[in-house]
């Protein structure tokens, strides 16, 4: 989310549910401006995800403050991979994981699209919350599909600015829920098996 390599303490996030409920963790400041997903939005999102988050393999594509990935861990996700390009921000994420003793999480300092282009794990829940107005949603969705990062029944969360159009997603992604909170639009999609896979199992 942030773009510079120097950061100072700017505030904190609060985990709102699960085993670390109420824990507050520092969030660095940066010239790019971190925009943690608000408590209100996170509470709604994880209410939607309650039936599937436990035991899920999660990917936070633009981790930033880590609010989404850490919330998933607190609610018993099996694992969380947090991608963050800014070195200072990813270093703070790593420190927060140490404080929580969250051994089932990994912070990777990387360009998210470059990382997604490499063969790797398959995920059950994916969070896509990039910096606003950078036009990164479509490229991220495309990379997830092209490089087979998604389980057949994966859930994908996308957060965007309200003034922009709805994200362009594949036809086999079904919009499950959507809401608006202030200047933020957020949507949860359920991915179904591609037509090719459906034919292969018929």
Describe the secondary-structure layout.
Blueprint: E1 8-14, E2 24-29, H1 39-53, E3 57-60, H2 67-74, E4 79-84, H3 87-100, E5 105-109, H4 112-116, E6 123-128, H5 137-146, E7 150-161, E8 173-181, E9 184-191, H6 195-201
Parallel strand pairs: 3-4, 3-6, 4-5, 6-7
Antiparallel strand pairs: 1-2, 7-9, 8-9
Description:
The chain has 202 residues and is an alpha/beta fold. 29% of the residues lie in helices and 31% in strands. It has a seven-stranded mixed beta sheet, sandwiched between helices. Strands 1-2 form a two-stranded antiparallel sheet. The N and C termini lie far apart (43 Å).
Keywords:
alpha/beta, globular, disordered C terminus, 6 helices, 202 residues, two-stranded antiparallel sheet, disordered N terminus
Helicity range: 25-40%
The unreliable regions are 1-9, 198-202
* Order of the strands making up the biggest sheet: 5-4-3-6-7-9-8
Query: N-to-C SSE series?
Result: EEHEHEHEHEHEEEH
Structure at a glance:
This protein is an alpha/beta fold and 202 residues long. The chain has six helices and nine strands. The model is unreliable at 1-9 and 198-202 (pLDDT under 50).
